[in-house]
Design brief:
Oligomer: single chain
Low-confidence stretches: 1-25
Largest sheet: 9 strands, antiparallel
Distance between the termini: 46 Å
Radius of gyration: 19 Å
Strand content: 35-45%
Number of helices: 3
Number of strands: 9
């Protein structure tokens, strides 16, 4: 194999290997990494945003991070009926607002078109965890996690549901 052919082949493989890890890639999220925050240290405005979203919410844990230059909190807890729920809350213009509400569900709880999109993409994929992620605009992103070979991190497939159609996402959803 000639050197020029080898370089061309390696360039083609790199181009097909998925999204770039560079911060300029719109599919890449630049993050500070999440850090645990003691519940008693969570800002009152952040708690107010969570309580405004779901009455009776009881906070159990919190994490903070800076993502793409914006401040975020992930606030986990329970509803009065015991349902575990998490709010992703972002600061915009000095105000805190819920941008995503998440809960774990069973595959059977997803809409039929979501299951069909998954099966059409990979009929052998058997998710072991499903997160229903309701966005502020009502769109739902189903994050389906399952095993992949010997990879302990597993595999993630996302399906967008707008109430009418289910679309398999090729890039990670960013709210």
């Amino acid at each position: 194999m000639t050197r020029a052919y080898s370089i061309l082949l390696l360039s083609a493989v790199a181009a097909c290997s998925g999204p770039s890890e560079s911060p300029s890639d719109p599919a890449t999220v630049t993050t500070s990494g999440k850090r645990d925050v003691p519940v008693e240290d969570v800002l009152a405005e952040v708690l107010a945003a969570a309580n405004a979203e779901r009455e009776g919410f009881t906070i159990r844990e919190a994490e903070a991070e800076t993502r793409d230059g914006r401040s975020y909190y992930d606030i986990g807890g329970t509803l009065p009926d015991g349902t575990e729920i998490e709010f992703d809350i972002v600061q915009e213009g000095g105000q805190w607002r819920v941008v995503e509400t998440q809960r774990d569900i069973a595959l059977a709880e997803t809409p039929l078109p979501v299951r069909q999109a998954l099966t059409g993409h990979d009929g052998a994929f058997a998710p072991t965890r499903i997160i229903e992620s309701v966005q502020a605009d009502g769109v739902v992103i189903y994050e389906l996690y399952g095993p992949e070979g010997n990879d302990p991190q597993g595999r993630k497939i996302e399906v967008k549901w707008d109430g009418e159609s289910a679309d398999l996402l090729t890039r990670e959803w960013k709210h």
